[in-house]
Amino acid sequence: MRYGEGLRGTRQFWNGRRCELFDMIKQIGPEGLDFFTFSAADLHWPKLHKLMSSNGNSETLAKNHQQNIIDNPHITDWFFYKRFEIFFNDVLKEKWELEDWWYRFEWQHRGSVHMHGIEKRRGVPSIEWKHMKEDENVMNEVVQYLDNLVTTINSGLDMPVPERHPCQKQKSEIRDDQQDYIDLINKLQNHTRCRPGYCLRIDKEGKQFCRFKYPKEIVEKTFVRDDGHGQPELVTARNDPYINPHS
Ligand SMILES: [Zn+2]
């Protein structure tokens, strides 16, 4: 296909977007660019399922929800897009002090939508590995900045994992933001199940290992070290061997 750039989803279309992205990074510079991901709790959001008339034939609510999504992928995608757009425009732009951004949507095997993007914030410290190694103040400034950006501290370490998915809560059920956050990380941000085809790999000796290196060691304070190939590696303070980094 020679003139496919106008056709969404073609190789030519994505090639065009890739060039735009390269140009953008060249102009604004790679410093302070962060990568972010949002996924859909499409099996759980009560407001999404209100938009879809369930046939009610399934024995359980979970099966009904699953069927709703299979029957109405366009509503599911629209809902995710709208929800993300509002959250991005009304919350993240201000909270993350965004200067520039780029994002795209993708679909997993079962058709579930998620998105990935990059963003640049205002007033980000210069992250130059050479300067960081030479100057303790520069290193401290960068570590402090990164520590505010992402965490692997579980503030609800001894709290039970909720049985009900926290995204099934109605707005009126969220009375305590801190408890809601703890429920969310304990239910959704724990890498407790390694699975073949997802994170499990086989090493040269035929032993299984998790490609994300879970479970991880407890770390008292965040630091940046050489990754063994001359590049900086961030090791965040961690009180839970299984918690995923989150913002
Ligand atoms: Zn794993």
List the helices and strands and how they pair.
Blueprint: H1 11-28, E1 33-39, H2 46-50, H3 61-71, H4 73-95, E2 98-107, E3 113-121, H5 129-134, H6 136-149, H7 177-188, E4 200-202, E5 208-210, E6 223-226, E7 232-235
The chain binds zinc ion.
The site of zinc ion (ZN) has 6 residues, from loops.
Question: Distance between the terminal alpha carbons, to the nearest Å?
Answer: 41 Å
Helix content: 25-40%
* Radius of gyration, in angstroms, nearest whole number: 21 Å
Main beta-sheet annotation: 3 strands, antiparallel
Q: What percentage of the residues does DSSP assign to strands (E)?
A: 15-25%
Q: Tally of extended strands?
A: 7
The overall pLDDT, averaged over residues, is: 87
**What class, by secondary structure content?**
alpha+beta
Stretches where pLDDT is under 50 for at least 5 consecutive residues are none
List of distinct ligands in this structure: zinc ion
Which word captures the global form? Answer: globular
Region (Disordered): 228-247
Pfam families: Helitron_like_N
Organism: Rhizophagus irregularis (strain DAOM 197198w) (Glomus intraradices)
Domain Helitron helicase-like: 3-117
